[in-house]
Amino acid sequence: MRKPYAAVATVAPLVALAAVAPAAHADTTVGDTRITSITVSKATTGVGATLGSAVGVTLTAADGSGIDSVIGPKVVGPDGLVIRPTRNECTVQSATTVQCFYSFPLSPDGTDAQDLRNSSAGAWRFKAKAVAHDGDSHHLSPGAPLGVKRHAKLEAAQATPEPVDKGEKLTVTGWLRRANWDTNVWDDYAGKLVALQFRKSGTDTFKTVKTVTTDSAGKLRTTLTADTTGTWRWRFTGNPVATGATSQGDRVEVR
User: What is the CATH number for 144?
Assistant: First the structure.
């Protein structure tokens, strides 16, 4: 006779959850055991150059005979990096259902084999196997998706001159950088398209005026004609390996 799951304190609800339905067509199932839901705390998590983060995953599994255990919870990166949970709590919900919560550390500091490398950025998978008391099971394969990206940041936009006469030239500059998990510094992010946005004074909405490509040092610079008072900012939408970023704005009075 197998030892039943030990109940623990109920896990506090997560914030900003993203639900993921198990890809049953690709999973390996035996009998009626099913991982019925997977909830990820953040569909995409950005990690900086030195400060780590974490991603939480909540799994619910059910079987007519009850769930005996959930085996091998882990997240796997595109480069094969495997991270095991530092927090693992399971609660018996009913005679047939168990809910488990896992917290996975995402650290860029390079002091541990589980720490992130630049090659780790991109699409990750959460994997686990639920096993029932009667021997039935459900193995997630290829696993539930989540994103782990190198954090990008934009320095505050700088517009000159301030103030400026209407019809005169206004120059706006910026700087885009991205976390380097191999060296724990912020790299210049060259050759990336960044939107220059403007919000007219008295309105709430920023609108894209033009797009500018960062130079070899990640710097942004463009010149345009001043027309009306308002705030300028830069916005980078991100890509499969880097998060998006928005700079602080710079308000310019047009006389």
Answer: 2.60.40.1930
Res. 26 pLDDT band, cuts 50 70 90: confident
CA nearest neighbour of 56 among 88, 102, 93:
102
Number of domains in the chain: 2
Domain boundary among 149, 183, 207: 149
Query: How many angstroms separate the first and last alpha carbons of the chain?
Result: 83
Model-level pTM? 0.85
Q: Quick one: which of 117, 147, 155 has its CA closest to 239? A: 147
Residue 123 CB partners (closer than 8 Å, separation 6+): 78, 145, 146, 147, 240
- The answer for residues whose C-beta is within 8 angstroms of residue 56's C-beta and 6 or more apart is 14, 40, 41, 101, 102, 103, 104
207 with 144, same domain: the answer is no
pLDDT in tens, 69-120: 999 999 999 999 999 999 999 999 999 999 999 999 999 988 888 899 999 9
